[in-house]
Amino acid sequence: MSVTEVGSKWCALIHIAIFAWYVFTLRANCSLEISDRHPGARLYGGRWKYLTFINLVMQTAFFGFCFVTDMVQMLLPAKSAHGGIPSLFIRIRDAIFTVLAFPIGTFVFMSFWSIYAYDRELVYPKFLDDIIPIWLNHALHTVILPLLLVQLYLQPHRHPSRTKGILGLALFAALYLAWVLWVHYASGIWVYPIMAKLSPLGLVLFLAVAALTMAPLYLLGEKLNQARWGTPGTRKEKK
How far apart are CA 191 and CA 201, in angstroms? Predict the structure, then answer.
């Protein structure tokens, strides 16, 4: 049995465990009782107006796809007649991780806890402690980063060119910001409490800083991947 084969089996076990955790977390989030104190989930846009929820769905789908990719690699070795199929799955996995899953997941972690440390009422009012269990809050805003680092350590990821990668991430950020602004236009509500407290200029600056933060996070993922696995030209498997 080859080292690669053993590695693939371990990766598959870890990925299915993380996928199961995210499915459990997603189900717990969707099962929360919606009350008059926190009616956000039943207002315009539902849960889909929150970046935290979008990220949760994305991380769930990503780790599910990682498990599928592991199974494809084990069932269809690269040297077989179907060798192009595993390579295709790996390219898709790497594109999702490098352009979306890592930078957005890291952004959710950093932005939530930085604003929370400054004034929690701007992002997560205290009354939510009576509605959302503490473990679920950490599952949504804390555990995501360690799990992304586990994935970064488990498998090397080939980044697209910086231009393509950052443009792809910028497109996601632009679409989400457009969605947030549309929700406000259509319903009169701001997705996050901090937005309601800012002046028009402050809101523009806040959104601009949030969007511009994405690019450094993409570069961070690239540097961490290189530190763990080396550059593509010198890369080799590590145990």
Answer: 18
Q: How confident is the model at residue 9 (pLDDT cuts 50, 70, 90)?
A: confident
Evaluate if pTM is beyond 0.85: yes
C-beta neighbour count of 49 within 10 angstroms:
23
User: How many CB atoms are located within 10 Å of the residue 89 CB?
Assistant: 19
CA 53 to chain centre: 10
Biggest CA–CA distance in the chain, Å, is 63
Contact 93, 154 (CB under 8 A): no
Could you tell me which of 60, 155, 46, 169 has the C-alpha nearest to residue 107? 169
The pLDDT-based confidence of 6 (bands split at 50, 70, 90) is very low
Task: Find where tokens 């949760």 sit.
Answer: 56
Residue 3 has a pLDDT of 34
DSSP code of residue 190: -
